């Protein structure tokens, strides 16, 4: 049974207007046990924010890690997305990709840093995403080395356009990634086609390592589902926050 202490979570919902996206965007912000505004905290930014909280149970995991595993307190920011435009925002070939990544860097991050005591160094920010959320996290970090250096990639959707952008980079030694993919993801159908996610992740790993990135990589039995990723989230968080 889950310890009741893990379920006593403080989650604040914020709404910001994005001039880049031309609409409002909701954020879910987890504040750790013992939260104190005069302190400062590492921060995890999650794509698909609603799913990370609802299906990934990231706030419950965070409470357990902080209360029982000796992990220093941290803040989580879940950036919500409209699933009907998710591919166009998260994929580098999407028509809203530039608007979303600009909003993330120039609107979402500054809003969080104005209103919450998060640390601002690249090694104190973690980007996390599943599938295309992992992809956009990698592209954000490649485009903004002054902001990001750590990425949690859960079955990243590294389609050919992303691999080409990755191959065009020369030095990615500032990046550190936790990557995992399920062995049963070798024939997964998305809204843009059917892909072998295992091969795509192997190719991305190789390209990253050839360019100096530090990659902790796993292939395990699992499908392209939150039931798989949820179990891996604690290890991913521990990897960067211990």
TrEMBL record:
InterPro entries: AB_hydrolase_fold, Esterase-like, Mycobacterial_A85_antigen
Pfam families named in the record: Esterase
SUPFAM superfamilies: alpha/beta-Hydrolases
Highest taxon listed in the record's lineage: Bacteria
Xref: PANTHER family: ENTEROCHELIN ESTERASE-RELATED (PTHR48098), IRON(III) ENTEROBACTIN ESTERASE (PTHR48098:SF3)
Name the record gives this protein: Enterochelin esterase
Source organism (scientific name): Paenibacillus segetis
């Amino acid at each position: 049974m889950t310890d009741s202490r893990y379920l006593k979570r403080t989650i604040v919902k914020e709404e910001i207007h994005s001039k880049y996206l031309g609409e409002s965007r909701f954020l879910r912000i987890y504040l750790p046990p013992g939260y104190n505004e005069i302190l400062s905290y590492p921060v995890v930014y999650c794509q698909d924010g609603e799913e990370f909280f609802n299906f990934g149970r990231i706030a419950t995991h965070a409470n357990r890690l902080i209360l029982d595993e000796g992990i220093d307190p941290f803040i989580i920011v879940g950036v919500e997305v409209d699933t009907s435009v998710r591919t166009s925002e998260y994929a580098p070939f999407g028509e809203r990709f530039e608007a979303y990544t600009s909003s993330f860097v120039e609107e979402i991050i500054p809003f969080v840093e104005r209103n919450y005591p998060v640390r601002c160094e690249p090694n104190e920010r973690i980007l996390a995403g599943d599938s295309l959320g992992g992809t956009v996290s990698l592209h954000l970090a490649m485009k903004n080395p002054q902001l990001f250096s750590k990425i949690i990639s859960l079955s990243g959707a590294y389609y050919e356009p992303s691999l080409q952008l990755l191959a065009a980079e020369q030095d990615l030694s500032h990046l550190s990634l936790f990557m995992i993919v399920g062995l049963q993801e070798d024939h997964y159908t998305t809204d843009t086609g059917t892909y072998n996610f295992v091969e795509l992740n192997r190719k991305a790993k190789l390209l990253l390592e050839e360019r100096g990135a530090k990659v902790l990589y796993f292939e395990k039995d699992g499908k392209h589902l939150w039931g798989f990723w949820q179990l891996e989230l604690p290890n991913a968080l521990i990897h960067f926050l211990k």
